[in-house]
Structure formats: C-alpha cells, structure tokens
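User: what does the whole thing look like in 3D?
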Amino acid sequence: MEIKKSKKLSILILLATFILLTGCQTSAARDDSDPLEVINRPIFNFNDSLDRHIMKPIANSYVAITPKPVRTGITNFFDNLTYLNVILNDILQGKFAQGFDDSARFIVNSTVGFGGIMDPAGHGTLPKHDEDLGQTFGTWGMGEGVYLNLPLLGPNSTRDAPDLVTSTLLNPLTYFAFAISAPVSAINIVNKRANLLDATKFRDEAALDSYAFTREAYRQHRLSLIYDGNPPVEEMEDFFDEEDEYPDDSSAEDILIIE
Amino acid sequence: MRKFIGTKLTLILFLLSFQSVLANAVPANSTPSDVVENLHQTLIQVMKEAKDLDFSSRYKILEPVINESFDFDTIARIVMGRYWKKLDDQQKAEFIDTFSRLSISTYTAQFDSFSGETFEVLGDKEMKKGRILVKTKLITDDRVVPFNYVLHPVKDRWRIINVIADGISDLSLKRSDYSTIMKTEGFDELVRKLREKIKSSGKEP
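Assistant: Here's the predicted 3D structure for the full assembly of 464 residues, as structure tokens:
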C-alpha cells in the first residue's frame, strides 16, 4: 500500500516536471508556434460543427426564453462555485490579501447572496477575481507550453490544462450525486455558451481562418489574465528594438501589446 | 441688455461647439486623446442614430472619421508581417484599400444599436519611439470593457495603429489570422476573402 502510494506520487512529480519543462522550453517561442496543429485543427472543426448544429441553437433559444436578470443570477451561481479554486490560486500566486478578500466574498455570496445567485459582495468592496492554475503557472514564469484544442472543451494549453483537475476537485458540484450534478452542469454549459454568443458573433464576422483567430484570441486573453489585465508594456517593447530600416516580421511587436 | 448679450454669446458658443462636433474635424494640433475622443463621439452618434439609418448611411458617416483616425498604411504593413516585403506596389495598394474598407464595414456592423453605452478616456502613457497609449473604457449596461489605443504621429497628426479591446489586440488577431491564409492560400485568396467579408458585413450569416 505504502509502495503504491509513493509510486503514484512519483508519477505525479514526473508529470509536473514534464509540464514545467515543456513550459520553460517553449516560453521563448511566440506567435504562431502550434506543433500540434495537425491534431488541433480537426478537433477544432469537430467542436465547431457540434457548436453550430447543437450548442449555439440551444444557447440562442435559452437567451430568447430566459430574462437577463435570471441569466445573470445563473452566471453568478456558477462563478461562485468556482471560487474555491480562485482562492487556492490567489494563495499560490502570493496574493494573500486578495485571497482573504476572495474568501470573504465566497462566504458572503454563498450565504447572504442565496448560494451565489446574488452578488452582494461585488456590490460592496469585494469584486470578482479571475484566477486559475494556468495563470498561477504563468505568474511563476512558465510559458504557454503547447497549444491544445480539447474535444468539447476547446482551446487550452499544456500550461493551462492541469487546472481542469483542480477546478473540478474544488468545485462543490463534483461531490453531488450524478442525478443532481448532471442536469445542473448542463445548465452551466448552456449558460456559458450563451455568454459567449457576442464573442463568437464577432469572430464569425471578422475571422478569415476561424481556427487561427480563436488560437490568437485565446493566447492573448490568457496573457491578459495572467497579468490581471495589465501586462507590462516594457516587456513587450523588447521586440521593438530589433526594428531596422525595413522592418521585417519581428519588428514593431510593441504595437501588438496587450494591456 | 447686458444679460441678453451674455445669453446670446452663450448661445453662439454653444452652437459653435455643436457644429465642431457635427463636423468631426480634428484640428492639426490635436492630442492623441482628442483623436480617440473624436472617434468615440462618432461611434456613439452612429449608434444612437442606428435605428433610423441603414448600413450604407452609417458607413458614410464613419468612413471619413475612421480614415483620418487610423494609419492604415502602417497597420497594413504590420498585419502582413513578413509577407509585406514580398508584395509588389500594386498588391500593397490593393491590400491597404481592401483592409481599410473592411475595417470601416466592421465598425459599421458592430456599432449598430444604442443602449446607453458611454466611452471614457482615462489618460495616456508614453511608449517607445514616440508612441502614445490612450487608455479608455466602454461602459455598457452590465459591464466595463477596457479599450486601449496605440497612436503614433504621422505628419503632425496622431493616428491610431492598434486597438486593444478587453486585453485582446486587434493587430495581433488579424496578423495571426491573415498570415495563416497567406501561408496556405496566398495573396489573391486573402484579398478575395476580405472582399467577401466586406460584402457580408451587416447581413445576418
């Protein structure tokens, strides 16, 4: 038994080391690196057709029949359930004050906010924060790793994927019986898709290559989250110093800054 | 009598300021924030009038303002990245023209209704090579979206070269998107796709 346990632990450590290493190796590579594109693209296309034929129509009908305040309540409820994972990652990132605030927020909204449906904390002085394990690895200096497109789940990366484990384990819904958690999760998925309708509308109007557009949007969104919406301009400007008289591809990167 | 003159003067001043808003003229010595503010005013104006105006009327209002606010020559070069140098002059001109028309179409299609949105300029920040970052936010009925602009001077006039909405840089998105098409299908196909986008903008897919 003891041996079995330590074996499990060593596998975990090995896995963590692998993720850390791949993260470090690829942190220098920017932009279009996508070694798994041959696998990612078919998965993206599969997800996309599933979305077009099933998820998007359901989300549209859901929006049509559900008043906005109700949808906001549902969004609040599910956001609140993810909050234990947010608090864990506040702590892992050394944001102790924010971790304290977020704990207070979770307690206030779970109780006074009717199980998270209302957001009294947010109307007070405890705004919502967005943290996850991928962001934690990012703040520790890890690069994106390898870009992934997961079946059903969509854009992800080797740095961000481990969060699927912690966010599932720390979500109270996980510990309810399937008969309860399944239909509730279904509502979560439909509501989540509905919240993305504007974003996908914009993508469909603007993108020439939906896959490339989505990948770039994912990367920038993640980077923005890692820096809590404020990535340092100076860091991005390093690329600009390479500019010559006739700028080539590596030039003017700082115009692309995300802030 | 004195009071009357005062009122008249106020009225004239009021009308003058109103007129300058209507004309959307950016004075030659305007600041980067002025350029952004002017763009925002026009967007809000178009949104407010959207219920009475069709797509092409809104396009005509936005076209001159967007053309004078953005530096499409620079944007086109950066969006094309490493492929820019491989284009001949005619292709470059064709791309700049198509790209700018698509940008105006996209703005026209996106800002198509009004529900109390406001823009607020928060301030600016100097960047390298004389570039200025103007930070603003769009306030809608249920959330606040940061809209940041990068501007640089072109012949004594500030022009926008990038828009970063909610942390996502428009230039990066397009660069990544277009370079994929350039790599796999080439310039002619890219321009054909852009023209198709212009045609379909403002219509339901």
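In plain terms: The interface with chain A takes residues 77-78, 81-82, 85, 106, 109-110, 125, 127-129, 131, 133, 135, 142, 146, 148, 150, 161-162, 164, 166-169, 171-181, 190, 193-194, 197, 201, 205 of chain B (CB under 8 Å). The helical segments of chain B are 2-23, 32-49, 55-69, 72-80, 89-110, 170-184, 187-200.
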